[in-house]
Write a structure and sequence with these properties.
The chain is built from 6 helices and no strands. By secondary structure, the chain is mainly alpha-helical. It has one domain. Helix 1 packs across helix 6, helix 4 packs antiparallel against helix 5 and helix 4 runs parallel beside helix 6. The two termini are 24 Å apart. Keywords: Membrane, Transmembrane, Transmembrane helix.
Length: 118
Protein backbone atom coordinates (compact mmCIF):
# COMPACT_ATOMS: atom_id res chain seq x y z
CA UNK A 1 0.00 0.00 0.00
CA UNK A 2 1.95 2.95 -1.25
CA UNK A 3 -1.06 5.26 -1.27
CA UNK A 4 -0.59 6.80 2.18
CA UNK A 5 3.12 7.62 1.82
CA UNK A 6 2.54 8.97 -1.68
CA UNK A 7 -0.33 11.26 -0.63
CA UNK A 8 1.62 12.49 2.41
CA UNK A 9 4.65 13.21 0.23
CA UNK A 10 2.48 15.24 -2.13
CA UNK A 11 0.97 17.25 0.72
CA UNK A 12 4.43 17.95 2.16
CA UNK A 13 5.69 19.13 -1.23
CA UNK A 14 2.98 21.77 -1.53
CA UNK A 15 4.80 24.11 0.84
CA UNK A 16 8.03 25.12 -0.90
CA UNK A 17 8.96 27.76 1.71
CA UNK A 18 10.46 25.30 4.19
CA UNK A 19 13.86 23.70 3.82
CA UNK A 20 13.64 20.12 2.49
CA UNK A 21 15.83 18.83 5.34
CA UNK A 22 13.47 20.07 8.04
CA UNK A 23 10.45 17.80 7.53
CA UNK A 24 8.80 18.61 10.87
CA UNK A 25 8.98 22.34 10.19
CA UNK A 26 7.58 21.82 6.69
CA UNK A 27 4.66 19.85 8.12
CA UNK A 28 3.99 22.53 10.71
CA UNK A 29 4.10 25.28 8.08
CA UNK A 30 1.70 23.40 5.86
CA UNK A 31 -0.67 22.61 8.68
CA UNK A 32 -0.47 18.84 8.35
CA UNK A 33 0.17 18.29 12.04
CA UNK A 34 -2.78 20.47 13.03
CA UNK A 35 -5.01 18.96 10.34
CA UNK A 36 -4.20 15.46 11.61
CA UNK A 37 -5.20 16.49 15.11
CA UNK A 38 -8.42 18.14 13.96
CA UNK A 39 -9.38 15.41 11.45
CA UNK A 40 -8.58 12.12 13.17
CA UNK A 41 -9.06 8.97 11.17
CA UNK A 42 -7.97 10.56 7.90
CA UNK A 43 -5.54 7.77 7.14
CA UNK A 44 -8.27 5.12 7.43
CA UNK A 45 -10.73 7.20 5.46
CA UNK A 46 -8.14 7.50 2.70
CA UNK A 47 -7.45 3.76 2.64
CA UNK A 48 -11.14 2.91 2.49
CA UNK A 49 -11.72 5.60 -0.15
CA UNK A 50 -9.01 4.17 -2.38
CA UNK A 51 -10.34 0.64 -1.95
CA UNK A 52 -13.89 1.74 -2.79
CA UNK A 53 -12.80 3.72 -5.87
CA UNK A 54 -10.64 0.82 -7.04
CA UNK A 55 -13.55 -1.61 -6.63
CA UNK A 56 -15.93 0.74 -8.47
CA UNK A 57 -13.55 1.03 -11.42
CA UNK A 58 -12.88 -2.69 -11.64
CA UNK A 59 -16.62 -3.41 -11.37
CA UNK A 60 -17.47 -0.77 -14.02
CA UNK A 61 -19.65 1.11 -11.53
CA UNK A 62 -18.83 4.82 -12.00
CA UNK A 63 -21.83 5.93 -9.94
CA UNK A 64 -20.16 4.29 -6.96
CA UNK A 65 -17.30 6.78 -7.20
CA UNK A 66 -19.81 9.62 -6.89
CA UNK A 67 -21.28 7.93 -3.82
CA UNK A 68 -17.82 7.58 -2.24
CA UNK A 69 -17.15 11.29 -2.78
CA UNK A 70 -20.56 12.26 -1.44
CA UNK A 71 -20.19 10.17 1.71
CA UNK A 72 -16.67 11.47 2.32
CA UNK A 73 -17.63 15.10 1.75
CA UNK A 74 -20.77 14.96 3.85
CA UNK A 75 -19.03 13.01 6.60
CA UNK A 76 -16.29 15.63 6.93
CA UNK A 77 -18.34 18.75 6.21
CA UNK A 78 -18.81 19.74 9.85
CA UNK A 79 -15.09 19.24 10.53
CA UNK A 80 -14.05 21.36 7.54
CA UNK A 81 -16.26 24.37 8.23
CA UNK A 82 -14.31 26.73 10.46
CA UNK A 83 -14.47 30.35 11.42
CA UNK A 84 -10.75 30.78 10.81
CA UNK A 85 -9.68 31.78 7.32
CA UNK A 86 -6.14 30.70 8.20
CA UNK A 87 -7.11 27.05 8.47
CA UNK A 88 -5.95 24.97 5.52
CA UNK A 89 -7.94 21.88 6.43
CA UNK A 90 -10.34 22.28 3.52
CA UNK A 91 -7.54 22.80 1.02
CA UNK A 92 -5.59 19.81 2.33
CA UNK A 93 -8.78 17.71 2.33
CA UNK A 94 -9.46 18.49 -1.35
CA UNK A 95 -5.87 17.95 -2.47
CA UNK A 96 -5.63 14.71 -0.52
CA UNK A 97 -8.94 13.49 -1.92
CA UNK A 98 -7.96 14.21 -5.52
CA UNK A 99 -4.54 12.61 -5.11
CA UNK A 100 -6.08 9.58 -3.42
CA UNK A 101 -8.71 9.23 -6.15
CA UNK A 102 -6.09 9.49 -8.90
CA UNK A 103 -3.94 6.85 -7.22
CA UNK A 104 -6.90 4.47 -6.92
CA UNK A 105 -7.99 5.24 -10.50
CA UNK A 106 -4.49 4.43 -11.77
CA UNK A 107 -4.49 0.98 -10.18
CA UNK A 108 -8.15 0.40 -10.96
CA UNK A 109 -7.51 1.25 -14.61
CA UNK A 110 -4.51 -1.06 -14.74
CA UNK A 111 -6.55 -3.91 -13.26
CA UNK A 112 -9.56 -3.20 -15.49
CA UNK A 113 -7.56 -3.08 -18.72
CA UNK A 114 -5.33 -5.95 -17.61
CA UNK A 115 -8.33 -8.23 -17.17
CA UNK A 116 -9.82 -7.11 -20.48
CA UNK A 117 -6.53 -7.77 -22.29
CA UNK A 118 -6.25 -11.22 -20.73
Amino acid sequence: MLGNPLIRLLLRRIDRSAEPDDVEQARANLGLVQAQKELPGGRWVGILERLAVYACIVASFPAGIAMVLAVKGLGRYADLVTESDRSRKGELFIIGTFASMLWAALWGGIAYWGVRAW
